[in-house]
Design a protein that fits this description.
8 helices; alpha+beta; 4-stranded antiparallel β-sheet; single chain; about 20% helix; elongated
Length: about 350
């Protein structure tokens, strides 16, 4: 091997390393080019009324955390949009399909793409926060107040409604799920009374449904629900809800203020996993009554009922937790047994 040949040997791996570095640089440049050409990136900053952070992924399907009907009334969602083309004047909201096509967007003869009443945001930065009421994102669905599904929301950076939105930072679309279908009403509630608790049983109900249990101590006149009670209005008084339950039965304690012989009104309604509430069940008036104890059943309620039972006192049939004192008949029996034993012993001698 010549000196020249020997000197070339260590340069081969350096050459391969150089090729690798060039490839890595090319890959990084391609990634940067892709990043610079990306659409607007949306995220959820806050969802009024919800206690934890939510992402758009959470809100994308009816199986996760869809928007529920009660949130149409006053809830808002705070979106953050990044990578916005600040050369455009506004961010505008649409729902439907092909909303990035101005011809489809402006076509008033079809419902393929519809502009939403959500307030368009004026832009001066590449990061834009927008607070949008739920009923402005899903106006038709909130107005109907029923059903479940997924709507595609478009957010477009526009100077005017007829402008095209091709290019980086000018458009984004994402699915927004809603579930406004309430659980079925339970119409077969039954209840039995007792001394300390009422037992409620029912049939029906859907999967993944819990039940709000209501008790109105002033909701009955005898065994009839009061027409103006807290459970007989359009919606039950929320302060009368005492617990939640699952399955087909539960128990609720009688309030201490309810005397024996009085009735209380009980009812239930379903709540599904989306937080939608069903209609109130039938209202049942259930009685609180004093139960007969085991001691009372054994000893009787007075007179001579328990005098013959050694577990009961012989002073009028009142039960006692300890055996009563021996009666005269009991002492006579003991003396007879002792006398018989003495006679047997003498004969044995």
């Amino acid at each position: 091997m010549t000196t020249r040949e020997h000197s070339l040997l260590p340069r081969a791996p350096m050459h391969r390393a150089g090729i690798g570095a060039v490839a890595l640089l090319a890959s990084w440049m391609a990634a940067q080019a892709t990043a610079n050409a990306q659409d607007i990136l949306p995220s959820v900053r806050a969802f009024e009324g919800r206690t934890r952070a939510f992402s758009l992924t959470d809100l994308a399907t009816t199986r996760a955390s869809p928007i529920r009907l009660a949130e149409c009334e006053s809830a808002t969602i705070t979106f953050r949009f990044t990578g916005v083309d600040i050369n455009r004047a506004n961010l505008s909201f649409f729902e439907g399909q092909m909303c990035d096509d101005p011809t489809v967007r402006q076509d008033t003869t079809t419902t393929t793409c519809n502009e939403l009443p959500a307030t368009a945001a004026t832009m001066n930065l590449a990061v834009v926060d927008v607070v949008v009421p739920v009923d402005e994102l899903l106006p038709e669905q909130c107005r109907a107040g029923s059903g479940a599904g997924v709507e595609t929301i478009w957010v477009l950076a526009l100077n005017n409604d007829g402008e095209t939105v091709t290019g980086a930072g000018q458009k984004v679309s994402f699915p927004l799920a809603f579930d406004f279908a309430p659980p079925a009403m339970v119409g077969s509630l039954r209840a039995t009374g007792g001394e300390s608790v009422a037992t409620l049983t029912w049939s029906g109900g859907e999967a993944n449904t819990t039940f709000q249990v209501f008790l109105d101590p002033n909701g009955c006149t005898g065994s009839t629900p009061n027409a103006d009670g807290g459970l007989t209005g359009e919606t039950p008084d929320p302060s009368l809800m005492v617990k939640t339950a699952s399955g087909g039965s539960t128990t609720v304690p009688f309030p201490d203020s309810v005397p024996f012989g009085s009735h209380v009104a009980v009812a239930i309604r379903g709540e599904d996993s989306s937080g939608n509430l069903g209609s109130l069940s039938n209202i049942v008036c259930v009685e609180r009554f004093e139960t007969t104890s085991w001691w009372d059943s054994r000893c009787g309620g007075g007179g001579d009922g328990g005098a013959v039972d050694e577990l009961c006192r012989d002073d009028g049939g009142t039960c006692a937790a300890t055996p009563g004192r021996a009666s005269g008949a009991g002492l006579g029996t003991l003396l007879m047994i002792a006398l018989t034993a003495l006679v047997i012993r003498r004969r044995a001698r």
